[in-house]
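REQUEST ID: PR-0412
SUBMITTED BY: lab tech R.K.
PRIORITY: routine
TASK: structure prediction, single protein chain
INPUT:
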Amino acid sequence: MENVLNHTAEAAAALTNASRRPKSRGAKDVLEWLMHLIFLLCGIVAVAFVLFISLYLVISGVPAIREIGLADFLLGQSWAPTASEASYGILPFILTSVYGTAGAVLIGVPIGLMTAVYLAKVANPRAAAVIHTAVELLAGIPSVVYGLVGMIVLVPGIQKLFDLSSGACLLAAILVLAIMILPSIISVSETALRAVPEEYEQASLALGATHLETVFRVAVPAARSGVATAIVLGVGRAIGEAMAIIMVAGNVANMPSIFSSVRFLTTAIASEMSYASVGSLHRDALFSIGLVLFLFIMLINVFLNVFIKRKKEA
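STATUS: complete
OUTPUT:
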């Protein structure tokens, strides 16, 4: 009798669980569908923001380029929007941004990559923790603080070292930008290096390679994609910086020279937008500078992505 009752109870419990499973499964399906929808909406919002910014820059910047002329705007060497005979040539700004960004990358990328290699493959945990803290502090410092320190320490130092009338020059801007892009390069490069499978390094060591040979001939090439992403982020930070550069570069519309006061594309917009009249050609030209800056960053991203893809295919 007891066995019959036990079997009856087990059967009833099984039926109850079977009746509950579809409801539980249905709730999970709804939750999963809802999460997919939220993720899709987030992606759409991100793409929509990029498209909106691109469209706004094109609508606001193209009219001034048409009125000034593409050649006069991009290749003109004089920027004097408030003069009696206004001129809107941004070649000095373009060359200054290119030289400044290239100089910062040439200085910052080797230092950042070597630091990432040290943290990921060489440093002991205590040293790595200290350096990680310093890198995080660098990433958290506002750009205006970089500019303030550069204006107080770096600019007078360059003036005395090279016996210049003013230390606010392209060299000061390059050094400040090189320091500012270090956190991005170090963090992303280190993550990419740590993601390299250990089997690659073990195989290299088994073939007789030293630890450093394994790092630079196996780990770093395997992390090429992540390192290139770090360079892209560094270039974007360097070419898009404005506040710190205004304080150390002199903000004068000269053709670029290492010891002359210069003005970047970003600083031209930041320094003149406040007093440019709404609807004037001057204000429209500043939006055109923003369009040129946006296209620069797009071209850099496309070039690096194509370069990485070709390397992978090779």
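NOTES: The chain is about 80% helix and 0% strand.
REVIEWED BY: pending
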